[in-house]
Amino acid sequence: MRRALALLLFLAGGCALRPDLYTAVPESGGLRPDLFVVLPGPKGHVGSITVAENETATPVALSTALAAAQIGRKGRLERVPITQEQVDEIFGDALVGLPKRPQHFLLHFQEGTDTLTEDSVSRIPEVLAEVKSRPQVQVEVIGHTDRRGAHDMNVELSKRRAEAVRQLLIRDGLPESAITSIGRGELDPLVPTEDEIAEPRNRRVEVTVR
Amino acid sequence: MTFPRSIQERCRASVLVLTVGSVALAGLAAGPVRAEPAAPQNVAVSIGQVKTARGEVFLLRGTERRPLQAGELVQEHDAIETGPDGGVGITFTDNSIISAGPRSRLSLDSYRFDSMAFSGSFLASLLRGTLAVVSGDITRRTPGAMKIRTPRAILGVRGTEFVVRTEEP
């Protein structure tokens, strides 16, 4: 018993001399190879991730800007402080290679037609500029209608709207192979309405430039 | 009952010849039917496009390993490797974007995205190196439906921006 106590005291003394043996926080800059960090978004929005050692382990939630975790020396997950400078140093190469974020545009149409509203005509140059700014570009065009009129007619109309935008892009030099275009009729209104209601905001084409 | 070894081998050889033969026949039969030669077969199954590539970047698809360039399309089950000065950025059909830094290996294990319902799932593995991610519509509709594995951890992505580093075990 006395020997056990002596051993315990000896071990505790050893720990006091070697802080890294019992503290979860490593010395400054001593981040471990397995590292997970949540970053703030461009508009200050912060998301969240969960990290676990395996499917059955209790996950650690990281949900504030620069919240970080690493796999410690003993293979256990632990939270760790990290600075923006450390993130830039470790992840700079990965971050610089991130593709430009996809950009969305909404173009509106006159009722029952595939003719753009004046307002949307004036936005076309912005769409074309975005397309041209990307060396490897893909564009997705999705046509929609409001709920006025028969369902089948609206499917046709939404396809004609998408096609009108597709033709605009092709005329501007975008290869057909870079465009996907579909019409969804009245199935996916931006503003939910009763059937047979005319709603200008639903008469639209969604353009995603990626 | 076991056949003598030589017979087994001969059987296997003839099966092989038969297989090669039928592939060749199928090729001949398919040849004249196809009107446009360079129909992009990838389009149907492509899940994303390489937007940025620098230094050494390799695509591993099945048994194939070849340099990967910006503009190319990637598929489910592809793996991507970068060299000491390499880096690659990919935009996926759900509008998520990822980028791997130097000395990295990433595999795109499974990817489902229904652009009508905005639902799906995305599992990728980072086996070594660094990865930056901005999640897209899959996690917007279903937080947690994107997962990243490393040799020692599994990440559930609720959104949106994060970075991961790991090394081989």
Computed Rg of chain A: 28 Å
Distance between the termini of chain B: 44 Å
Q: Kindly, what is the distance between the CA atoms of the first and last residues of chain A, rounded to a whole number of angstroms? A: 71 Å
The total of beta strands of chain A comes to 9
Order of helices and strands of chain A: HEEEEEHEHHEHEE
Structural class of chain B: alpha+beta
| Uncertain stretches of chain B | 1-44
Report helical residue fraction of chain A.
25-40%
Form type of chain A? elongated
Strand order of the largest sheet of chain A: 6-9-7-8
Q: What is the highest CATH level, the class of the largest domain in chain A?
A: Alpha Beta
Helical stretch tally of chain A: 5
The main sheet of chain B comes to: 12 strands, mixed
Number of strands of chain B: 12
Structural class of chain A: alpha+beta
The secondary-structure element order of chain B is HHEEEEEEEEEHEEE
The biggest beta sheet of chain A is recorded as: 4 strands, mixed
CATH evolutionary superfamily of the largest domain in chain A: OmpA-like domain
What does it look like?
The complex is a heterodimer of chains A (210) and B (169). Chain A is α+β, with helices and mostly antiparallel strands and 210 residues long. Chain A has two domains: 75 residues, no CATH class; 107 residues, OmpA-like domain (60s Ribosomal Protein L30, Chain: A, 2-Layer Sandwich), CATH 3.30.1330. Chain A is built from five helices and nine strands, in the order αβββββαβααβαββ. The longest helix of chain A is centred in the C-terminal third of the chain and has 21 residues. Chain A is elongated and about 65 Å long. The relative contact order of chain A is 0.13. With 169 residues, chain B is an alpha+beta fold. Chain B has two domains: 39 residues; 125 residues, no CATH class. The chains are: A alpha+beta (210), B alpha+beta (169).
